[in-house]
From TrEMBL:
PROSITE patterns: TAT. Gene3D superfamilies: YVTN repeat-like/Quinoprotein amine dehydrogenase. It comes from Variovorax gossypii. Transmembrane segments: none annotated. Belongs to the cycloisomerase 2 family. GO terms for molecular function: 6-phosphogluconolactonase activity. Residues 1-29 form the signal peptide. Keywords: Carbohydrate metabolism, Glucose metabolism, Signal. One of its GO terms (biological process) is glucose metabolic process. This is Lactonase family protein. GO terms for cellular component: cytosol. It holds the Pfam family Lactonase.
Amino acid sequence: MPSRRQLLQASALVSGLGALGLESSLAFAARAAAQGPVYAYVGTYSDGGKPWRGGRGQGVHQFVLDGATGALKPIAGAPAAVASTGEGAKLRNPASLARHPKLPMLYAANEFEAGSVSAFRIGANGALTFVSETPCGGKDPAYISVHPDGRFLFTANYASGDVSVLALRADGTPDASVAAVVYKDVEACGASTPCKPGADVVPQAARSHEGFATSDHDGPHAHMVHADPKGDFVLVADLGLDRVISYRFDRITGVLSQPSTVAVSESSGARHFVFHPNGKWLYLVNEEASTIAFMRYDNATGVLTLASEISALPKGFKGTSYASGIRMLPDGQHFVSLNRLHDSISIFKVDARTGAPTLVREEWSRGNYPRSCTLDPSGRFLYVCHNKQGDNVTVFRVKGGDIQFTGQYVAVGSAAAIEFSA
């Protein structure tokens, strides 16, 4: 039987691999033995408001993970879901979640007009305790992430077209004495290369499969914000501007500066992105065009260069679909993206030499309108959240560069995003 020291050493090693999605089943077993159970949290839309939200969630739903089967089970003695504070707080749409990289803290971006971040402490039994709710300074925050250092968190504010930086205290709670700093997406390009929203028309890629996907090119709409793998830059995908913005990040002050931008096809709708484990290749989902933009990344300057755009839909598909989530698989040679209306998971192979992606096949997501997908900490299971009418999370086993449905459905009203405790 391994000693406590050996378990801790194994845990330290695989935690780094897990951050890249490269943790093996054996390594996961060692980490699980050292750290105990893994818990899962599902953010939901609890206020319908807009037809795509659903509005049947009850806040942040909480589960414990069965590491052998991937099943999600209720936490014994804990409520099914938690909200911020007060009876009406469940109407705040905690639709995006992020955990602190070092502390037992979970954060939710509350997607409503005023915009806020809720902080929860993760208890010894995995149950969440509400700590605070802090204004984020933007409207309808659709995405939240925490910098790897754990000193700042970011929100992408969809309706106001900007990103916010919030300071965290040493205990992981948002510092309410420091107002969120907001950066407008349209100011990232400057006078010589102004950021302008694309026309609200069907993009060329969607027209090629006779689709009618259009939305929100009336102005800037920040859809994702996340630090690069080294933590030196912060990247923003803006759907309305059809651009990815890269800011240099000051780890001490939290200031974003020296922005550079790269444009994708007009009206394609830049949504979410993922880095390859080498930190030099980036893959971006374009929502309206249903394409994957492959970009090369200079991690010394933060500059992105567009290399190609390919369809995320099967050859011969006709009709409308909206691409959404994206996730790199643990082997580092494949990634998956989601297609809403087509209701599928596209599996891509990455060329080891060039980084260029190739669509391999599609898998039915087993639900309606798949919004996001996340791997468990071991990288052995993929969880897909369906928020519009599906009201569930479906579970897939990851096998190398492929996935297989486990037969498991988890009932969650208007499921939007899932995050884990480890």
